[in-house]
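Dear colleague,

Following up on yesterday's call, I've attached the two folding results inline so they're easy to grep. Please treat them as preliminary; we haven't cross-checked anything against experimental data yet. The first protein's sequence and structure tokens come first.
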Amino acid sequence: MKEKTYAAIDIGSNAVRLLIKREESDTAGTTPALKKLLLLRVPLRLGFDVFSKGEVSAKKADNLVRLMKAYRQLIRIYEVDSLRACATSAMRDAANGPDILKRIRKETGIEVEIIAGEEEARIVYDNHIERGGLDYGSYLYVDVGGGSTELNLIDNGTLIESRSFNIGTVRMLTGRVRQSEWDELHDFLAGIVSRFQDVTIIGSGGNINKLYKLADVKDKENDSFPVSELSRLYHTLRPLSVAQRMEHYGMRNDRADVIIPAAYIFLTVASTVGAEKIIVPTIGVADGIIDGLYLSDREKHD
């Protein structure tokens, strides 16, 4: 059977990503192996409009359509067999979100789904496929985005619960996170602690990946990020200006501002569940979208 090529578009609150992967030729009947062909990230920062004004500005809407046209051409060049495009927190909240997606469909032919927070959480859960499954122990997937944070609790390989909270980096920077969301997050995590012991956190998203790269950790073979080191980095970076973070740590502008609220969210989760480390496998929502497409294809042929 011909190896298929998959593509995912993730329209997030901070950036819009295109990921293309191809099935490896020797994966029939074995653990999935997908080779990354292309990853593009463009920081349109839709959430800064939406969370402060309630809608995407005309300029950013135009840029989103232009970007989707460019992505469509790349999808054709790479001869993609299966595509899924998803829009998350910012487009969920944007009053003009449905109209923008209709325009994208008309001008590019790409059908974009505005997915609920719970569906986003389940997409993140699909990332466990690339790690060969998590068959033993209790794991909490934590995906921190611009508009929301997705949590998935997995115990002995079984998805127990998925939750999405309107707590994200861009929402925090624009002062749009309600205290009730923090309270609900705390209650959810307290419930986990009462039922499960020794919960291991798996972190995803560009911010935790960047923090992990900056970490002073000698042994990175197991992608293990000590929470104590994350705390040290947080308290080192927080007093600095965005310009200083860019200059001293090689960050882009669109990373240097959101990295502080991201670190705070991860530290909040880790301290509440008593985790001493975070596993950082450098995969995210777009990977989960492709894993879901791949899994669906495998189930059809099994």
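Below is the second protein, in the same order (sequence, then structure):
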Amino acid sequence: MSVHKNKNNNTWYVKYKNKTKRGFKSKHEAQIYEAKLKLSNIDSYTYPYIYDLAFDYLQYYQTIVVYGTYRRTKTIIDNIIIPNIKNKRIDTYTELDCRKFRELVNGLNYSTRYKNSIIITFKALFKHAIKYFHLKKNVSYVIESFKETYEEKKRKKEKELNIWNIDEFNRFISCVDTEQYKPLFIVLYYTGVRIGEALALQWCDFNNGKLSISKSVTHKTKQVAYEVKETKNISSIRDIVLGNNLNNYLMSIKSKEMNKCGFKNEWFIFGGEAPLPTSTIKRVKDRAIKKANLRSIRVHDFRHSHASNLIGEGINIVAVSRRLGHSDINMTLKVYTHLLQKNEDELLVYLDKTSQHLLNK
């Protein structure tokens, strides 16, 4: 290994061929530098060691996904995959090595969903090696995904049902003690937009009683507070009609904002010159929930509540799906199928009513 610790000052240094680089604060920083050195000497026909392959994969991956997705993948590679595998050349990995890695992941104290994310990321390294380093055989094909336990399915079902009706929401909003955050919660509940989509909204996106959704905010690190990116998918680009009440409510807020010094139409609707921070949004939400003595829900459950209320009132499922920005109506049906029971009951009433003449024969 070319990464070493300097015991005199608790720093790390890298020795690679005739190069030595000192002063790294952590072993991880030194390993990243080592990977860069090795990759600079690897051509596309040389099989890299898996640590170096992982570094190259992350360098590529961050250019094609949003920051949040990259960060989650990097966490899996840095904290789970790298510490639990042998640093061998990628072409020396066998099916048995892959099976052992799956067994190791199975023993970790994570949800089935997160375990499958680990497996997906691990297999992605092999696909990356095939694409860019001409790996001839992908032995990771033997790794099968994990199946959800009964308890997980039960908790997932309970989470799906974790919504508020209008009375509960009104109790909540009356207890929000920070006026700046009330409009955000109101728009989330009455439009069903994703939190990232809501935070990316600028006043120029509010026109003619509609909100134009075309982008999303991802919160990053302390150094980079947020990033505005394109929406989750093409179907997420949509206009959401507000209705007279919500439209007039937002108009009154905009009128107040326009009186502020330096106002621009490019200001964020929720936050002004910068979008509201998600950590504070959660704190304000949780504080109001406790004050209103309501069962706790996530910010994302405002979206579920909106959709559930619409479906519960018999609104066409296709219209609901479009409003949510789902890429496929089957996604909407999968999440909200349990709410269609009311429509089914009404269907039976209709059938009985229209077929009454059959009993007279």
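For the second protein, one point worth flagging: Strands lie at 3-6, 11-16, 19-24, 206-207, 210-213, 215-219, 226-230, 238-241.

Best wishes,
A.L.
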